[in-house]
Amino acid sequence: MQSTNPVTAPDEVEVPDLSLERGSYVPYYRQIRDQVEALIKAGKLKPGQIIFSEGACATKLGVSKMTVRQAFQALRSEGLLIIEKGKRPMISSGRIQKDFQKLRGFTAEMTRRGLKPSSKVLQFEKAAPDAATANLLRLWRNDEVYRVRRLRYADKEIVGLETILLPARMFPDLAKTDLENQSLYALMETRYAIAVEWSEEELEAIPAEKDDAKVLQVAPGFPLFSMRRIVFAKDDIPVEYGHSLFRGDRYTASVISHR
Fold first, then answer.
1. Structural domain boundaries of the chain?
2. Residue 162 belongs to what H/E stretch?
């Protein structure tokens, strides 16, 4: 005789004991959101776990799938859920705050926040720069640049896609360097005696284009946090031009202003 108990995959969790206060002024979706958030913060739902579907949650609570969808989208906007088309929601570790008052590389920023950074080099080439890049980096005639494209991870979750351009004459033998497991800024200082001092940044929110969306594992049009940055060393010498695309569900900006 077959068991009638539902089977749950090892990497999934059953719908927890959520409840709704039917007479409350707090909307149902907000009650669901608050309870799931509390379970995440209490460690009962852990980053990387695949959780229950909208339909399963709606059936258990006696509400519409749209109500649960609102709750899940609210959790996603806070970086607590990762929702990809055709897949079950996954618990995330929350958004990563970028502090723009300090010039830190990705490795240092993630480490400071207690996350484990890692990278995957998607492209590394030495080539002639276009006119705009040559102007930004104040390159000499016939100078070449290294173009490095890296996928960035925090605790094994994809956070962003980074493309950087570096003056090749300033960083000889860079191709022999491991750029997946160490900080570029630390490498600049220890190996090339170049210490970065300040940067100029341009920030905007943009929708993900098809190719970038595929690499970042999001749907086209997904909100991305775009950052273009020129980094300067001593005597205002530009040493890096970069463009980073961060997932909107994994990254947020933090700025303190004084009057």
1. 1-94, 96-254
2. strand 157-167
The two three-digit tokens of residue 169, written as one number:
């004459």
- Tell me: pLDDT of 180 over 50: yes
Which residue, chain included where needed, has tokens 């590389």?
105
**3-state DSSP of 64-123:** CHHHHHHHHHHHHHCCCEECCCCCCCEECCCCEEEECCCCCCHHHHHHHCCCCEEEEEEE
- Is the overall model pTM greater than 0.85, yes or no? no
Indicate whether 3 pLDDT > 60: no
Tens digit of pLDDT for each residue in 131-164? Answer: 999 999 999 989 999 999 999 988 788 889 999 9
Q: How far apart are CA 184 and CA 206, in angstroms?
A: 26
CA–CA dist 242, 165 (Å, integer)? 6
Give dist(CA 207, CA 221) in Å, integer: 4
Helix (H) or strand (E) holding 226: strand 223-233
CATH number listed for the domain at residues 96-254: 3.40.1410.10
1-94 maps to which CATH number?
1.10.10.10
Picking from 151, 34, 157, the residue whose alpha carbon sits closest to that of residue 93 is 157
